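User: Can you fold this complex?
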Amino acid sequence: MRQPDSLRVDQRAEAGPYLSVSNLVVKFPSEDGIVNAVEGVNFSVTRGKTLAIVGESGSGKSVTALAIMGLVNRKSAKVTGEVWLDGEELVEKPDSGIRKLRGNKMAMIFQDPMSSLHPFYRVGAQLSEAARTHRKISKKAAREEAIEMLSRVGIPAPRRRVDDYPHQLSGGMRQRVMIAMALINSPALLIADEPTTALDVTVQAQIIDLIGQLQSEFNTAVVIITHDLGIVADIADEVAVMYAGRIVEHASTERLYASPEMPYTLGLLASIPRMDRETNRLDPIRGNPPSPLRHPDGCVFHPRCKYTDRVPNRACFEVRPELLESERNHLVRCHIPAEERRRIATSVLGAGTGGGAAIATAGAGGTGPAAPVGGPA
Amino acid sequence: MAAYIFRRVLLMITLLFMLSVAVFFLFNMLPGDPARLTCGKACTPDLIEANRKRLGYDQPVLVQYQNFVGGIFFGRTFSADSPEPIKCEAPCLGYSFSRHEEVMSLITRAAPVTFWLAVGAFIIWLTVGISLGIFAALRRGRWQDRLTLGISLVGYSMPSFFIGLILYYFVVIQWKLLDKPEYVSPFEDLGKFLATMILPWIVLAVLYAAFYMRLTRNQVLEVLNDDYVRTARAKGLPERTVVVKHALRAGLTPIVTSAGLDLAGLLGGAIISENIFNLPGLGSLAVDSITKSDLPIITGLTLLTASLIIVANLVVDLLYAVIDPRVRLT
Ligand SMILES: Nc1ncnc2c1ncn2[C@@H]1O[C@H](COP(=O)(O)OP(=O)(O)OP(=O)(O)O)[C@@H](O)[C@H]1O
Ligand code: SF4
Ligand SMILES: [Mg+2]
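Assistant: Here's the predicted assembly.
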């Protein structure tokens, strides 16, 4: 069968990262003061690879994604840093320029498929609109594409479903529609902001699988945002853990699961039940994340950290730790020396973890935790 | 859907019936003797008595009501046993003895005037109000938004008799840009019709446009933060499409509700505009009848206005289903 243009996968193997985010900062001035939502985030993603961004509520995951998409209202927010998408810098780009990329080269799906589709328009109309915004194709062709996309995301009887209204579909089906809509213009970057949080547990895995499967079909760079480390283990090549607007640990998925180092990551991992590991008791992180209006001095995690006494001179309370390479492609933001961090990890998470038992996989090549990026050549 | 409409129409008829009872009995309890009004200065006790009998006011209220309703469906004859009986064909809403004319024919003569006045103003205010509302929403927080809001506040707070008199004074009397208004049917003399209607249209539209501008702006701004609007932006749609096609459509329900009821209300007569601009519409008829205590006309007009509102409610409810596919009319 002939593939419609929109579905043809871009075959050019691209060497460099498709998306590079460098020192991204987002602040919202508000009546109570400045909301420091994102405080200097760096990462990059290559086509065909998946980066998971993990963190608690309020850590700045969504704002990071929205800032990349140019969906943060520039009148009410201050965005600085650089976002490079396929050789174009987006932070300085005028709105009209970013609009042409949105839904075209980069697409996003959201947490709640119930409210993310327009309740008054048919599914097919919403999909065709996405196609026709960026390509000059007839209504009929767009509708055919919509049907084709619906079938590709696993919606049964797509020819019938295309005329349904969103309220006639289940939550899982709606998220499939959202995915179809995001992918209809074959974007090279897909950002999925907690795509399964609002769904039944049984449906969650299906949606994640679908994203993974379509990613290899379309050769997409994927950023998947979640607060559940468990759900992305299978499809993410890399994981960046965010806390209070910053990345606190960044490594390949294998490495991060096998040998986490930052105390916050340990807390996150300790709170997911795993078969392959004997967890003593689920050990959630005590306390709450800091208010984005006033981040604590020193390490932003110190009010909740159990290991501040391992660092001399009260550094945890006074000195901001940098995000430093602990090993190749493994970045950690913590004052404790690497050796001791691994010992702590082993004792917290049990045997079989830490101590360099797992070696960072070669598969992560090309999608490195970003050193600050300049413009492309 | 058909069943829904059927049930709504039944409900409508029941409501109208109850309304007619209420109106009829309430108005009958008003002080003043309707029979006295029939002869004016020439009244003598005997004449009043005779007229009372001719009009049927001598009968118990219940019988009067029965005659009234019977007249609507089958027509009736006033002063049947006098030498010159007055036949009133169905639907007969009664007979005005101060004007010596059937209420129905008075209403059908005045209704087109009010109809054109209301519909013309309606089109103007919806177009102006909604487009200014969208404009303000698109420029939210900027000076264009504030200017539009300011203008609408002025328009909203100016009484229409004030705008009407000012316009009339300058345009007609001072500058003589338009002739003294005199109503003609648009089919007779379109130019003169427009020249007569333009000022009253403006007077009515200013007030309503100001209201619809605010309503539209607020509705759009309210849904602008909704998830599906964000999705529309994420598709890369231009801001205008996001606002009009996605946000406005979602916020349309209250606008449709107000528009339907406002239009219905106006179709019952625009008292101030009609009086200032000398338009012989339902509003003028109502004022005149009230000052003359012409009960049959007042009763007829009240029932007509109320029916308009009830019908408008049904139309609005049907429109909901067109706007929002989640609304099931069952
Ligand atoms: N438009 C905005 N104006 C002001 N503050 C905002 C705005 N959007 C987000 N924030 C704040 O920025 C911080 C980061 O929010 P963000 O939505 O990125 O968190 P998140 O990591 O996605 O959390 P969640 O898991 O709850 O989605 C929060 O404190 C939030 O209140
Ligand atoms: S720097 Fe200090 S407070 Fe921060 S995570 Fe490391 S030990 Fe804990
Ligand atoms: Mg979020």
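Chain A is about 30% helix and 20% strand. Chain A touches chain B through 29 residues (CB under 8 Å).
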